[in-house]
Amino acid sequence: MTLEAYFNLTQECGITPSMSRRGNCYDNAMAENFFSILKTECIYRHKPKTFQEANERIDSFIHFYNHERIQLKTGVAPLTLRHSA
Predict the structure, then answer these.
(1) pTM for the complete prediction?
(2) Number of domains observed in the structure of the chain
């Protein structure tokens, strides 16, 4: 079984898998949303030619996303909101 082999591997490596209730599609919604935005706004617009270029672009985008990119729902960047709480 693949799931059992994966679970055993995580245990051997000292990793605790993050799992919640079975079959809840909303568990990964925030991460999937972020990666969708990352691909759309960063990767697809400027296709990197090397791994190093991709790594630099992604690091730069994550900084932009957290510190500068205004979220329509809140009207501020994510870390601005977090630090004001």
Answers:
(1) 0.61
(2) 1
